[in-house]
Write a structure and sequence with these properties.
Mean pLDDT: 90
Structural class: alpha+beta
Largest sheet: 7 strands, mixed
Number of helices: 8
Radius of gyration: 17 Å
Helix content: 40-55%
Shape: globular
């Protein structure tokens, strides 16, 4: 059977909900990623020589490396398609960057609005539901996969459960590692994202 873990989340970590807070945070996230995780090819593709020098000297990059912000109507269309209203931290993120490519860990992409979907409707999600349905002990996980929205993918999958709301309106978030059947739980999209930031330090 799969295992669920609940990481200790730093109490001082504020849930990011505004585009202003997300933009500052994602700028720092990208700099940490480029310093500690990016390949030489990624750095060559993203930065010019002056920016590489700033990065090497521990300075702040002035150029935005994220995507364009999602428009209000783009987010509204995704919510209407899925018949939900996204939690505040995900909305704030999308209004800052409609998707995110440089992610710590085994996720290739945090999806833009157009790719966010019910996990049961994605190819990877449908396959996992079929696989995990073969064993009775996995019923809890199958139920979670069926009711969750998939917001990022790669070797790992990020999920948000709209049926499990916190007092701040945030949905419980998970990162699932199919290779090991490992499921880790977070209180929000924001804290899930920040877990990757801490892992890069």
């Amino acid at each position: 059977m799969s295992e669920m873990h609940e990481p200790n989340e730093p109490a001082a970590t504020a849930v990011l909900t505004t585009p202003e807070a997300w933009r500052d945070y994602l700028g720092r996230y990208d700099e940490l990623y480029l310093r500690n995780r990016a390949s030489d090819q990624e750095i060559f593709d993203l930065l010019d020589e002056d920016e590489v020098e700033v990065l090497d000297e521990g300075g702040r990059l002035e150029r935005w490396l994220g995507e364009e912000p999602a428009r209000e109507e783009t987010v509204a269309a995704a919510e209407e398609r899925l018949e939900v209203r996204f939690p505040p931290s995900l909305r704030g993120f999308l209004f800052t960057s409609d998707g995110w490519m440089r992610v710590s860990g085994w996720v290739d992409l945090v999806y833009p609005c157009g790719r966010i979907a019910w996990m049961r409707d994605t190819g990877a999600g449908a396959s996992l539901i079929r696989l995990y349905s073969e064993e009775f002990d996995n019923a809890e996980y199958v139920d979670l996969f069926r009711r969750s929205i998939e917001i990022a993918g790669g070797e790992d999958v990020w999920l948000l459960d709209p049926t499990d709301l916190g007092p701040d309106g945030e949905w419980t978030a998970y990162v699932f590692t199919p290779k090991y059947g490992d499921l880790r739980k977070f209180t929000s999209f924001s804290t899930l994202f920040h877990h990757g930031y801490e892992a890069m330090k």
